[in-house]
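Transportin 2
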Amino acid sequence: MEWQPDEQGLQQVLLLLKDSQSPDTATQRAVQEDLGSFGLILKNNVKAHYQNFPPAVAEFIKRECLNNIGDPSPLIRATIGILITTIASKGELQTWPELLPQLCNLLNSEDYNTCEGSFGALQKICEDSSELLDSDALNRPLNIMIPKFLQFFKHCSPKIRSHAIACVNQFIIGRAQALMDNIDTFIESLFALAGDEDSEVRKNVCRALVMLLEVRIDRLIPHMHSIIQYMLQRTQDPDENVALEACEFWLTLAEQPICKEALSGHLVQLTPILVNGMKYSEIDIILLKGDVEEDDNVPDSEQDIKPRFHKSRTVTLQHEGGEGEEGEDIDEDEDDDDDTLSDWNLRKCSAAALDVLANVFRDELLPHLLPLLKGLLFHPDWVIKESGILVLGAIAEGCMQGMVPYLPELIPHLIQCLCDKKALVRSIACWTLSRYAHWVVSQPPDAHLKPLMTELLKRILDGNKRVQEAACSAFATLEEEACTELVPYLSFILDTLVFAFGKYQHKNLLILYDAIGTLADSVGHHLNQPEYIQKLMPPLIQKWNELKDEDKDLFPLLECLSSVATALQSGFLPYCEPVYQRCVTLVQKTLAQAMMYSQQPDQYEAPDKDFMIVALDLLSGLAEGLGGHVDQLVARSNIMTLLFQCMQDTMPEVRQSSFALLGDLTKACFPHVKPCIAEFMPILGTNLNPEFISVCNNATWAIGEICMQMGVEMQPYVSLVLPHLVEIINRPNTPKTLLENTAITIGRLGYVCPQEVAPMLQQFIRPWCTSLRNIRDNEEKDSAFRGICVMIGVNPGGVVQDFIFFCDAVASWVSPKDDLRDMFYKILHGFKDQVGEENWQQFSEQFPPILKERLSACYGV
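Predicted structure tokens:
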């Protein structure tokens, strides 16, 4: 028997439909709302239970959808469109073969509503199923659909033109073949719409051109001049949504190799347009409560607080001439200033575009900017002055060289802006000053560092929460740049940061932890003074005691304590016991919950493993800071058993932090680690998988530390790890940090087991030498080079072909210890004697002059 709709429900819907045609607008509005909610109920049912609908019900719904797609009510059309897409996204495109042909046919309808409704549904299907539509699964419907959509670019209704472009746009990034075959028609049709009076159409045209720039720049290059002219106009469009889409064009163009050539002649027009887009709009100012100056007594609403992600510990080495390597796997997110407007807007896009263009054009941008900047920075209207300060911050990275002559005058002006009466000016001044922190620190401290620090610390205690946040972030950047330059002012800095503890609401407290942690990282052991510890530790421990084990605010606090423990070293001893115990408990609880969840997923929730990761990282900080003092704590806990489980966790970040802790415990209290080595080594071996860069990096480092403690007893494990290490060091595109740690560990393995490792020398000596030549002299480099020397003694033939690389690596040492220098001396002279004076002369002719000089000066060869 055929399915029948439920009579009562049907009558209700029919009545609504009848009322929706009622001339009375109030009745209509009420009906619209009801219909909308009916549609949503139906959609949610389809979403949840479509597979279980009787076939007749499913057919009925599909049929009625197609019959009513042209309903006069836009709301009903939209709801039906959503319904159709929901069914289609349930994998039903294959089992509803008539859907696409019918919708495409309905586009030809004389009736506007039918055409618009069908296009609305098609646009949603294209958004949801673009990959499927471009596959053989459906017989490549795009071959018909795309030419069809292109015809509608000329339709008399702007709504339909807009749908048509939006449909085609879904297929640009995926380079759908059907679109690539019609690419020239598409581009011509877009150009034809350049002057369209409808803002939605203009927005979609801009969006198309931005994506084509990424995907088919070859097709745009012949028209680039006119496209740029068009985009310059659109970036000033009265409709901000159009302007924002157009502004993306400059961001995308900046990443293309042709950028410089294409834009050079247009900078004079583009620069003022971008600068103008960097002002706050009136709406922004209202949303940002720009006229509210003091709000630091108002508690934060919880949804304002963005979820924070803990960044697990990665072990890196120090390089020549810098603290750490810049720009390597480490995503520093450059936080702009207006977070509560975290949606992307024209101001942010213009600032980002100016930033990337400054990086492309460098100082060539300044002649176009400087005349504008003067007028902005000293403008009486605070909104304009504020945008000038943002401009100055945006160009800091790209135009630093050219800005240097103006900084002695500009920095004091910016420091003055920190006291401006408008909070939004004070907060942007914090950000911009942080972008010039590197220069400030390079000058004599009394010139700018001291006044900047004094004012920034006042801003940390500002009455406005946005300013507090900007000042705290800026101060953290200043700390990273200034490092030990801050030591003379520590007392003053700590007084401010500790005072902020009592003043801050929830959201900014989390940023304050970061500023304290960064301070500890920057000044290191200088923080280990009784008066400083007395100021800093009580408020931190008080927070620590207030927070429950389930509270995510523990993350930033644990990260902060980890830095503090590492810096204070023995000064942290009085606080270490409760901190250590709680970390072990957090790991234990998380593992237990994960266990219960894996056995009965319907009964238990999956744990948030971040608790365990952060706890493992703080334990690493304790082990690193307290060294041998951690021995007693480890002895009285089951941390090694827990570590055995964590090292095998399914989540890479958990394994990453486990291996970091294993390395730190190996250095601090190896007797507790040694009994577990037989069980741990196979796990370490399987994690030498460069697919997970950071896991592999930390496992490699831990193996190196274990070598140094195990000595010759490492022998049984060489075959478990050496083949992987040799493979990794020879892989192309391996990140620098991983290469360096791999080289160190191979050297250490060879140091303790030369007989086992030396036979492979020829397979790794060249990448080994090149990856370690830029590392600073330190313990790790020392042990690795001793290993190489010992292995060369066992297998001198292994190094002959690549001896020039060995010479270069030796020359990278500034001051090796005497006995290591002797080892180098013997190998270099041994090689020279072996080949004879004449051959050595020929060989050393290939050396770059600087290498020749160093070897001759240090080793007399």
